[in-house]
Automatic annotation (TrEMBL):
PROSITE patterns: PPR (PS51375), TPR (PS50005). TPR repeats lie at residues 238-271. Keywords: Repeat, TPR repeat, Transit peptide. Pfam families: E_motif (PF20431), PPR (PF01535), PPR_2 (PF13041). This is Pentatricopeptide repeat-containing protein. SUPFAM superfamilies: TPR-like. It comes from Urochloa decumbens.
Length: 638
């Protein structure tokens, strides 16, 4: 009767029955202790164990079937957040096990090693394991899992190899633990070897192992093997579907991630695999990557109906989605309504306001974040977002304060923060400070090099920008598409037409970077500045139609306006108006072009057309930092 109550989870009733028993032997104690261990109720388990020690002979408490569930409950308590009391209990139980010779039991030693590992005392766990007279599959699996969980992936794989060499049969849990270590470390070749072992043992179709295999291949970017691992499962559970969706997301296949989610919903009634918070988080992130805001709103509603919209991961994805596309009111609503806010939550909402130019709101949120008792220190995304605000407003003083905060947080050498600092100092007019940040650490990331190249190009330091590019390539770093924007802009400012054309032609052939509209826009500007309008027009006509957007035509229009080339300028203006019907730039440029030719009537007609269409020229503005006690940024509008 006691066993039945424990197995059904009715521990209160089981305890009443236990207390009513006239004779309680070790079996009764072990049964109830097993129930407390399964429920992770360490205080009750420890109290019952203390009662046994006080009322029974010493050998009763030393029974492995009595002591091991107490240690398992201790491990569960430690996993939930070990405090000094839990560690003291673990040490006391360890001492008792040694004194009573119970430590020689593989069950007791395994549970003890697990308790130490989950309490963060991995060296003690290793010591207990190494002193075990005999080890079974559970012992080895516990060790491998503990090492992988602690980030010691290579040690985990070494111990897994020792397990196989010792002759102990590998089970699905041991294989999954080793595969997790490979996934976390990005060790694809070793992971493939383990996959072969799993296949040989017939374990690769076990859902737990198949999910881990899918995670391994997904993190290593091998989507085909991810799909194969998932397809091996007889029926996909929520973990399998979520891994599949996340795999598509991580490899840039957002549409397929959404399609997989739709298939999951379609199969939900037949296999009971309902999406959880991580599934919704992944598919909403996919919507954010491809501007599917309306679908994201529908997913938001569906998550709300399932009671998942306030889950931290879902809320974070929603804030990123709404913030990225300027839906700041919706982003703020989700953020304020979320119950648990972590550093990702705060970074997402700050980034949303920052990228839309709401600098005061972004800094107000940052101040609130720093005073929030449960929020950790800012991460690299928080600082990079705020530094971008400072760069846009040339607010160097605020940027310097963020620089100091980055130093305190140990983030000043992170590539994202370092490039944001370089950008901030560059746009604030202090390339010497930007150079100091750049040279303060091993220059081994493309982002920082690119920030320096773009910074020098924007300041007209073409020689320095191009010199940095050549040096960057010399040290073995591969430039990306942003790097080439800086390089081509530098060529344009320096009038290096032939060099710029050579770089454009070499982008794909030599560096594997496909030229995009931004690069063509730079080269059109380069040719236009040199007065080679006809060549600029020919370049535009040669490129793919989807690359001929307003950016490219605007570059040609500016060149025509500067050179007074009327017919080509008119054609460029028409293309700009098609791409940006509510933009004022093309109308203003054409009016100025007519005026430069003395065609005042046509210039007036162009401005009248603007009024008819309701197109308003944006006001020019500038900003300056204001010192004093009430320090801030002053904005001037003309």
């Amino acid at each position: 009767m006691l066993k039945q109550l424990v197995r059904s989870g009715k521990l209160a009733e089981a305890r009443c029955l236990f207390d009513a028993m006239l004779h309680r032997d070790e079996v009764a104690y072990a049964t109830l202790l097993t129930g407390y261990a399964a429920a992770a109720d360490f205080p009750s388990a420890m109290a019952l164990f203390s009662r046994l020690r006080a009322s029974s002979p010493p050998h009763a408490a030393a029974d492995p079937f009595v002591l091991s569930p107490v240690l398992k409950a201790c491990a569960s308590a430690a996993a939930g957040g070990a405090d000094a009391g839990t560690l003291l209990h673990a040490a006391a139980l360890h001492a008792f096990a040694v004194r009573s010779s119970a430590a020689s039991s593989v069950f007791v030693s395994t549970a003890l090693a697990d308790a130490y590992a989950k309490a963060g005392r991995l060296e003690m766990a290793l010591r207990v394991f190494d002193e075990m007279p005999c080890k079974n599959a559970v012992s080895w699996t516990t060790l491998v899992s503990s090492l992988a969980r602690a980030g010691r992936r290579h040690d985990a794989l070494r111990r897994f190899a020792e397990m196989r060499a010792s002759g102990v049969a590998c089970d699905s849990h041991a294989c999954a633990a080793a595969l997790t270590a490979c996934a976390d470390a990005g060790l694809l070749p070793r992971g493939r070897e383990l996959h072969a072992i799993c296949a040989k043992l017939g374990l690769d179709a076990v859902p737990y192992v198949a999910n881990t295999l899918a995670t391994l291949y997904a993190r290593c970017g091998d989507i085909d093997r991810t799909l194969t691992a998932v397809s091996r499962m007889g029926s996909r559970d929520v973990a399998a579907w979520t891994t599949l969706i996340a795999s598509y997301l991580q490899t840039g296949r957002a549409e397929e991630a959404i399609e997989a989610f739709v298939r999951m919903l379609r199969d939900e009634s037949s296999n009971s695999a309902s999406p959880n918070e991580y599934t919704f988080s992944a598919v909403i992130a996919a919507c954010a990557n491809i501007e599917r805001v309306c679908l994201g709103e529908q997913l938001h509603a569906q998550a709300a109906r399932r009671g998942l919209s306030h889950a931290r991961t879902v809320a974070n994805s929603l804030v990123k989605l709404y913030g990225r596309y300027g839906r700041l009111s919706a982003a703020a609503d989700v953020f304020r309504e979320s119950i648990v806010k972590d550093v990702v939550s705060w970074s997402a909402i700050i980034s949303g306001f920052a990228q839309e130019g709401f600098s005061e709101e972004a800094f107000a949120l940052f101040s609130e974040m720093r005073h929030h008792s449960s929020c950790p220190r800012p991460n690299e995304y928080t600082l990079a977002s705020l530094l971008s605000v400072c760069a846009s407003a040339a607010a160097m003083d605020a940027g310097c304060q963020l620089h100091a905060l980055a130093v305190v947080a140990g983030l000043e050498h992170h590539a994202m923060v370092r490039s944001a600092l370089i950008d901030m100092y560059g746009k604030s007019g202090s390339m010497s400070d930007a150079d100091a940040v750049f040279c303060n650490r091993t220059r081994d990331d493309v982002i920082s090099w690119t920030a320096m190249i773009v910074g020098h190009a924007e300041h007209g330091h073409s020689k320095e920008a191009l010199g940095l590019f050549e040096e960057m390539c010399h040290v073995g770093l591969k430039p990306d598409h942003v790097t080439f924007i800086g390089v081509l802009a530098a060529c344009s400012h320096a009038g290096e037409v032939e060099l710029g054309l050579r770089y454009l032609n070499a982008m794909n052939k030599r560096y594997g970077v496909e030229p995009a509209k931004e690069h063509y826009g730079c080269v059109v500007d380069l040719l236009g500045r040199a007065g080679r309008i006809h060549e600029a027009q020919e370049l535009i006509e040669r490129i793919a139609a989807d690359e001929r957007d307003g950016v490219v035509w605007t570059s040609l229009l500016r060149a025509c306006a500067a050179r007074g080339v009327h017919e080509t300028g008119k054609k460029a203006a028409e293309r700009v108006m098609e791409a940006e019907p509510w933009g004022s730039g093309a109308h203003v440029a054409m009016a100025n072009l007519y005026a430069s030719k003395g065609q005042w009537r046509e210039a007036a007609q162009e401005r009248h057309l603007m009024k008819q269409k309701g197109v308003v020229k944006g006001a020019g503005w500038s900003s300056v930092e204001v010192g004093g006690d009430d320090r801030g940024v002053g904005v001037f509008v003309s």
